[in-house]
Amino acid sequence: MAFESLSDKLQNVFKNLRGKGRLSEADVKTALKEVKMALLEADVSFKVVKQFISAVQERAIGQDVQNSLTPGQMVIKIVNEELVKLMGSETTEISLKPASDMTIIMMAGLQGAGKTTTTAKIAGKLKAKGRKPLLVACDVYRPAAIKQLQINGEKQGVPVFSMGENHKPADIAKAAVAYAAKNDQNVIILDTAGRLHIDEDMMSELIEIKDAVDVHQTILVVDAMTGQDAVNVAGMFNDKIGIDGVIITKLDGDTRGGAALSIRAVTGKPVLYVGMGEKLSDLEQFYPDRMASRILG
Ligand code: GDP
Description:
The chain has helices spanning 4-19, 25-41, 46-60, 63-67, 71-86, 115-128, 143-156, 169-182, 200-212, 228-240, 258-267, 288-296, and strands spanning 103-109, 133-137, 160-161, 187-191, 217-223, 245-249, 271-275, 283-285. The longest helix is centred in the first third of the chain and has 17 residues, at 25-41. The model has no long low-confidence stretch (mean pLDDT 94). Helix 1 packs antiparallel against helix 5 (71-86). By secondary structure, it is an alpha/beta fold. The protein is elongated. Strands 3-2-4-1-5-6-7-8 form an 8-stranded mixed beta sheet, sandwiched between helices. It binds guanosine-5'-diphosphate. The site of guanosine-5'-diphosphate has 18 residues, from helix 6.
């Protein structure tokens, strides 16, 4: 599970804080220095850590904490509140148009991030909400990706629209809209091609899709295991094509988890869901407060 090492380290810092009757400014500063180290080791972006620590410090050195009967507890509470704030405070849902309209969602991400799996996971969630999703195979470079989407679609009981490998993704997206309208589907989820690294071709292809159809939500899938790279990727996608939200996959793995803490602060875009396993049911809504509790133990 992600955050294990961060959790252990923070709990150690907190144990020391709780043990002290009164807290001097120096005690708080020492504790926050340790919190800072722990966050950096968890692969949280440097800039984010700096801002976080100064926000906590500003509140933790004040009179309220000094005069409190349980100053250690108050500092811990402040760290908790600032962590929740860092992750965006509120839970954000994928925005959908009314069921009478067609909602088009475009999934983007690097190859291997978990995009195709997550696309099918999302379709399952939307179906459970009473929507009628259509999965669309826009990754025309990897026949295996089309096949994988078809298999996953079948598992979820959701139709998959494909035109094979010989059409442009933007044309496939357009044809999918016509198909969905005819077949009474009201959410279209486009599974686009990923590449190993961000490149101009990938970006222009996504922009072409956006120009061809009315994409309502662009959702980026990033892999938690890639740490700060995931955050850089999110920043670049947001700059180039504009994203509405992020899904972080593989948080079930042995990852330091920093991406979950940094993405919102770096991109300004919310984390919508987190991937917690390979099974199609392993997708959890992102609750900043629960995630903070998980981290603080
Ligand atoms: P794509 O290239 O981005 O479409 O990636 P895939 O959907 O093919 O996923 C790549 C690999 O990551 C597959 O083996 C998935 O089963 C796995 N995967 C995806 N999401 C998760 C997750 O949340 N947790 C774990 N453990 N594995 C995942």
